[in-house]
Design brief:
Shape: globular
Number of domains: 1
Strand content: 5-15%
CATH class: Alpha Beta
Oligomer: single chain
Strand order of the largest sheet: 1-4-2-3
Largest sheet: 4 strands, mixed
């Protein structure tokens, strides 16, 4: 987050303190600029992976072989797949599988209300050097997606926080619950759709370390618990996802509150000096 830009009143930004948009700092089609390129919002950096945050995420993608990778954004409600740098989806069966998964998630959880398709084709503009395109083309992740989880179309363009974040508890809880369930459905659909040779063995899933560090051990008795065991697993998964989203949204809110408070104080000080 660029604090200096916030002090200047530029609230609608996607850049870091060095002015770089991390979702333009990846190597696939890096550095290309569209006619409507805005250097204040889409600076790709001095080179692919010039930013430490992008380097960390790249190393993470190399450290294991993820089956599904989801980038979480806000601004609208949509389920996107590659590509971002062109208005088409990849060719072949893998692309059809990805679209099928997203369409099933959209139908089961959103009653077909979300926009589904390639990021570049559905959003209305092309983005170059994005995470999703790198993960698909270079890291060979079978199913990299971008989820746009919220957007207030009625919010003023001067109120960036309200445009991209729920501001009341009822809406906040609704967004959390709805998208946590979307992730659970995504995992189910992805596991069902992926070829057998790409699915991790059950042995690797016998121990799961949830948030907080407590190890969930699944012994044979738990595995034979039938439907009750499945429900407990879903409940635990929902609880973990809710915890993650709540922490994410809370940290975002606190940061924005702190920055906006500083802006307000600076403006008051400037007004007093006139």
């Amino acid at each position: 987050m660029d604090v200096s830009a916030l002090k200047q009143g530029r609230f609608v930004i996607g850049e870091m303190g060095r002015g770089v948009d991390l979702n333009r700092n990846w190597s696939v089609d890096w550095g290309k600029k569209e006619k409507d390129y805005n250097p204040f919002e889409e600076d790709p950096g001095t080179a692919p992976f010039s930013e430490p945050e992008a380097q960390i995420m790249q190393e993470l993608s190399k450290s294991f072989k993820p089956h599904i990778w989801v980038n979480v954004h806000s601004g609208m409600e949509a389920l996107f797949m590659p590509y971002d740098h062109k208005n088409t989806t990849p060719d072949g069966a893998p692309s059809h599988l990805m679209r099928s998964v997203l369409e099933n998630v959209n139908h089961r959880n959103f009653q077909d209300s979300c926009l589904v398709g390639s990021g570049g084709g559905a959003v209305g503009y092309l983005a170059h050097g994005t995470t999703t395109d790198y993960l698909y083309d270079i890291a060979k992740v079978p199913m990299p997606f971008t989820f746009e989880i919220y957007g207030d179309e009625k919010a003023s363009t001067d109120d960036c926080f309200k445009m991209f974040n729920p501001v009341d508890k009822i809406t906040f809880d609704r967004v959390i619950n709805k998208w946590c369930m979307a992730f659970l459905i995504l995992f189910e659909e992805g596991l069902r759709t992926l070829p057998d040779d790409q699915v991790v063995s059950q042995g690797a899933l016998d121990n799961w370390v949830p948030m907080g560090g407590e190890i969930l051990e699944r012994n044979m008795d738990q595995k034979s618990g039938g439907e009750n065991g499945k429900l407990e697993g879903l409940d635990l998964g929902m609880q973990e996802l809710k915890t993650y989203f709540r922490l994410f949204m809370l940290s975002t809110f606190l940061l924005m509150f702190m920055f906006c408070s500083r802006i307000s104080k600076n403006r008051s000080r400037d007004s007093g000096n006139i």
